[in-house]
Amino acid sequence: MGVTQTDENRVVGAVGKQLHIGGRWSDAANGATFEVLDPATGQPLCSVADAGPDDGRRALEAAVAAQPVMAAMSPQERSDALMGAYDLMQQRSDDLALLMTLEMGKPLAESKGEIAYASSFFRHFAGEATRIRGGYQTAPQGGARFLITQQPVGVCLLITPWNFPAAMGTRKLAPAIAAGCASVIKPAAQTPLSMLALAAILAEVGLPDGAVNVITCTDANAVMEPLIRSGLARKLSFTGSTRIGKVLLEQSAEQVLRTSMELGGNAPLIVFEDADLDEAVAGTTAAKMRNTGEACTAANRIFVQNSIMDAFAARLTAAMAELPVGRGTDPAVKVGPLIDPAQLDKVSTLVHDAISKGATATTGGRAVDGPGFFFPPTVLTGISADADLRREEIFGPVAPLIGFDTEDEVVAAANDTEYGLIGYLFTNDLRRALRVSEALEYGMVGLNQGVVSNAAAPFGGVKQSGLGREGGAVGIDEYLETKYIGLAL
């Protein structure tokens, strides 16, 4: 049985619509609200509180009050709270997934996959909470000892994007909680409901009031800049565009905040002539179409060796053309809407620019008529060197194919960008695989696979794709300060 209107009304009605501050739900100080839209219809789902600067200060003060309590919790208590949150997400996964599909648009199967991925950060960092490392050693000259310990960095400000509204929240909250840090988290205005649902879950698992504060708002700079400059927070973690990330880095410099930045991408995907074509097409489709292409990890420039270009293009076109487009609540749908009219206009403009400069759309190529913000899976060939989408992040279901002849040529082209989040390559030559993986100037590489994200692996980029790493054994380090204590004997 499919999703009914009753199901939709129930999950939207069950989630809190207020701010979550100091363990309590409350309206914005001025009573303001804003509408959350269903991108598949363009119609409102509900209204939520629209925080102002006063609400932001209240949330920060609640986190400051909770910080010593969080730091005093034992590692096992933090671990137990995270495992409790994991269990609750598992129990409520169907409702959480439907809520995400309604506010973000992705197909229900992808939403269920994201809930599983999001909850895995709680489980992973439940383990890391009990493995925070320290050290003890004899001073080289003797007569003293070195005691090395790690302590919570302090109150954290967390800003998350709309494209993965649950996973990008848990990827930040889980290590913060594991390390003993209180947080103020601001989700994207397009997708606040998933974070509000997570706030309710975290309120149930034994964390102190004020450990996790959620503020939803439409004027992010007015609310967050005073908190960044206040001197009361010690850490900022942001996932979003490089443009906004640079602004936040400038603001963070005033108080020398610790920062983690997961910013934009321009991911190359390279298919060599010795690759398994079936594997390469499947991997390219996954790397391009995950989340309807609205992912910083999405393949943005697809380089295909000229000797196999025609065969690869035909297979990828066939694979993309058969993906059904529609509202994500339909179980047959594989491609949902883009998030809003601005994103639809951006994708349409980039495709039009490429076609006007000589590219050919072998499938797709123009926005879908009707309600909602839909763009079909699109494959472009004959991309000119001056097409805007060769340098701009597309963030949509568009696969530009670019030919190449030699390994050196394609590595240089792949690295010819200010971004460095992730690259992909498909080859059955082991030596080439290692050589190219090491030559790519990216923080992550997908080798013969189109999806690499995993809570147990370090996620992050180089160059203008960001600073720091989230996930993996090193993810908790971003929320810890190292302290050295010298002991005289």
What does this protein structure show overall?
Belongs to the aldehyde dehydrogenase family. This protein has 489 residues and is an alpha/beta fold. It has 2 domains: 282 residues, Aldehyde Dehydrogenase, Chain A, domain 1 (3-Layer(aba) Sandwich); 183 residues, 3-Layer(aba) Sandwich (Aldehyde Dehydrogenase, Chain A, domain 2). It contains 14 helices and 20 strands. A 7-stranded mixed beta sheet has the order 14-15-16-13-12-17-18, with helices on both faces. A 6-stranded mixed beta sheet has the order 9-8-7-10-11-19, sandwiched between helices. It has a 3-stranded antiparallel beta sheet with strand order 5-6-20, with no helix packed on it. Helix 4 packs across helix 5 and helix 10 crosses helix 11.
Give the key terms.
single chain; 489 residues; alpha/beta; Aldehyde Dehydrogenase, Chain A, domain 1; Aldehyde Dehydrogenase, Chain A, domain 2; 2 domains; seven-stranded mixed beta sheet; six-stranded mixed beta sheet; 14 helices
Short description:
This protein is of the alpha/beta class and 489 residues long. The protein has 14 helices and 20 strands. A hairpin with a 4-residue loop joins strand 3 and strand 4.
Helix content range of the residues, please?
A: 25-40%
* Domains, number: 2
C-alpha end-to-end distance: 73 Å
- What is the C-level CATH assignment of the largest domain? Alpha Beta
CATH superfamily of the largest domain: Aldehyde Dehydrogenase, Chain A, domain 1
Number of strands: 20
- Summing up helix and strand content along with how strands pair, one would put the structural category as alpha/beta
Biggest sheet architecture: 7 strands, mixed
CATH topology of the largest domain: Aldehyde Dehydrogenase, Chain A, domain 1
Average pLDDT value? 97
Radius of gyration, Cα only, in angstroms? 23 Å
Strand percentage: 15-25%
What is the count of helical runs? 14
CATH architecture of the largest domain: 3-Layer(aba) Sandwich
